[in-house]
Specification:
The structure holds 2 protein chains of 2 kinds. Chain A is of the alpha/beta class. Helix content of chain A is about 30%, strand content about 25%. The chains are: A alpha/beta, B mainly alpha.
């Protein structure tokens, strides 16, 4: 079930990573229990310095618990947990000095202005007064909050609060940044701009561990991914490796009359790398293929004279929704579930 | 930076943060001052005539130290509700992920709340002067009287800090603290002389630290009469000492417990 995994390998942005020496985050055999519930049941993961790891999973999978242990907010029951070579339990204060955390809920003081929020956090990171103020100004500028700098955060929109929250976690230039569902609850426009900010940070060499329920988000931002479900890692690798696990690309045809499907299968069989799948009820044919657009062109040539029967045709690559469905038998939850954490995902069909 | 200096500097940052809120939400100040004024007026004019007083005292003089004590002890419950609110909003998580002192959030909170209490007690004292309360002692004694009141309230703040961190819902903290604070401040010499209590309650009231706080304040403000000596209990014969023992005891127990609860606090 696993894609190939080498500790510290993958698409790291910041130079080569050899033998785990440049892993910014190392988690081995992490176990965390809450009473009788085992929230994390032996999680292993590593994040190469300068890379972005996407930690994926449905609600309740244990993503936030992993982040809370890594950021010293929770003590592990077993396992080795290190950030920048420092043990999170023994060297908690030194870990805190090199990390930034943006939690699931924008943790900003509503009554303080944007500037005051950042200055306060800067001072608590032990920056000098002048340095804290200078950084606050810089970050407000960078996150498009300069105009709102002297307004209490209470007056900010959800997207602005998130940006202020991320700015606060960046004030002391952390080497490792933890983002726990950074775009949950944001409107699409704010989400896009948040993605740009995160991508910029990654380009700047910050190591990032990002949790998300949005597969699209992980696909876009993360170099490597770890998928957890019920406290265990169920898959890991790059997006392409994960997609390869559920199969490669396929040609999908929807026809007007299902009666033509057997004939199409015969004509197209030479292109298929695996058995074609016919769904007569949906009037659909799915043909696993390898290659790019030329396969599509080839297929249409082979169907010459029959194309009038085709309602829709496409070359489809699996997305992470397919991966998740294949791995867990469930669709990743799409909705921010502040109000309804127990909502069960629909049994079939990606929501995207 | 040494750890003492670091704790101090972090605590100053947090105190400042808490006081900014007071500045931005004027309602806080309004209610922190209106309710004491209301209490002074209600007790002075509604119950004042009905209460049997020790000879040689006026109800205005008798009442005010009691009102001071009750109001600032009640004011200390803010500590618990505010910490619970910070927990709910994820701010405690943020603070706990920073390389800051583990006690600074609590020190900053309790100090800011003591600041609010100083404002309330000032307003109450001024209202009291209008309705006939007088300080009949030296400046030094009077200052000591205010210090004893504020010290006791500060200790209660740490107790409420623990409640806030454990209960985690501001509304529940408020309700829970009323259940404790009201009996504590009413079964005492706060509003009526102890002579009026039935015997079991009277013993409780005599040893109730709130009684000692009030007795200390009455003595230090010169609001007692030689015709009405304090009850025989050691606690009320030595009210300042007895109060300070309680302050030390409460702090010795609840500072470490609250800091421990903070280190383990889980937001949501």
């Amino acid at each position: 079930m696993y894609a190939t995994e080498e500790t510290g390998g993958g698409l790291s942005v910041g130079g080569p990573s050899v033998g785990g020496m440049t892993d910014a985050i190392v988690v081995e055999g992490l176990v965390k229990r809450f009473g009788a519930t085992t929230a994390l049941d032996g999680v292993d993961l590593a994040v190469a310095e300068g890379s972005v790891l996407g930690l994926l999973g449905p609600n309740g999978a244990g993503k936030t618990t992993v982040v809370r242990v890594l950021t010293t907010l929770l003590e592990a029951d077993a396992g080795r947990v290190e950030v920048m070579g420092l043990d999170v339990a023994r060297d908690a204060d030194r870990v805190r000095a090199v990390i930034g955390l943006t939690g699931q809920y924008a943790a900003v003081d509503e009554y303080l202005t944007g500037f005051e929020n950042l200055e306060m956090v800067g001072r608590l990171y032990r920056l000098g007064r002048a340095e804290a103020r200078r950084r606050a100004g810089e970050l407000l500028e960078r996150f498009d909050l300069s105009a709102a700098a002297s307004r209490p955060a209470k007056t900010y929109s959800g997207g602005m609060r998130r940006r202020l929250d991320i700015a606060a976690s960046l004030i002391a230039r952390p080497r490792v940044l933890f983002l726990d569902e950074p775009t949950t609850g944001l409107d699409p426009r704010s989400r896009l701009s948040m993605w740009e900010f995160i991508a910029d940070l990654a380009d700047g060499g910050t190591t990032i561990l990002l949790t998300t329920q949005y597969l699209e988000e992980a696909d876009r931002l993360a170099d490597r991914m770890v998928v957890i479900d019920r406290g265990r890692v169920i898959a890991r690798g790059t997006a392409d490796e994960l997609k390869a696990q559920v199969g490669g690309q396929r040609l999908e045809f929807t026809v007007i009359d299902a009666a033509v499907l057997p004939g199409m299968v015969e004509r197209l069989r030479p292109l298929a790398v695996e058995d074609p799948v016919v769904d007569a009820a949906a009037r659909r044919l799915s043909l696993p293929v390898s290659g790019g657009a030329e396969v599509l062109a080839d297929a249409l040539r082979r169907l010459d004279g029959q194309t009038a029967e085709i309602f829709d045709v496409g070359l489809r690559r699996p997305d992470l929704d397919d991966v998740f469905l294949a791995l867990t038998g469930r669709v990743a939850e799409e909705v921010a579930t502040d109000d309804d954490p127990t909502a069960e995902p629909a049994a079939t069909g990606g929501a995207r | 930076m040494s750890s003492m200096a670091a704790t101090l500097s972090d605590s100053v940052v947090i105190t400042k943060r808490n006081l900014i809120k007071v500045k931005r939400v004027p309602d806080l100040i309004v209610f922190a001052t209106l309710s004491p004024i209301m209490f002074v007026l209600l007790f002075r004019y509604v119950f004042g005539g009905a209460i049997q007083l020790p000879p040689g005292t006026s109800y205005g003089e008798f009442l005010l130290p009691g009102i001071f004590a009750q109001t600032i002890v009640l004011g200390s419950t803010t500590t618990g509700a505010s910490l619970a609110e910070d927990l709910q909003k994820g701010l405690i998580d943020r603070f706990r992920s920073l390389p800051m002192s583990r006690s600074a959030v609590l020190i900053g909170r309790t100090v800011a709340d003591a600041g609010l209490n100083i404002i309330s007690i000032t307003v109450m004292a001024l209202t009291g002067l209008v309705v006939g309360w007088r300080i009949n002692s030296s400046v030094g004694e009077a200052v000591l009287g205010f210090v004893v009141l504020l010290l006791f309230a500060y200790a209660i703040s740490w107790l409420m800090a623990l409640v806030g961190l454990l209960v985690r819902t501001p509304e529940v903290v408020n309700n829970a603290s009323f259940i404790v604070i009201f009996p504590l401040t009413f079964v005492a010499n706060t509003f009526v002389p102890l002579e009026s209590f039935p015997s079991v309650l009277r013993t409780f009231a005599e040893w109730n630290p709130v009684s000692a706080v009030v007795q200390s304040a009455r003595e230090l403000f010169g609001n007692t009469s030689p015709l009405a000596p304090a009850p025989d209990a050691w606690s009320l014969q030595n009210p300042v000492l007895y109060t300070l023992i309680w302050v030390v005891l409460i702090l010795a127990v609840f500072v470490p417990l609250s800091v421990r609860a903070y280190r383990r606090a889980a937001g949501r």
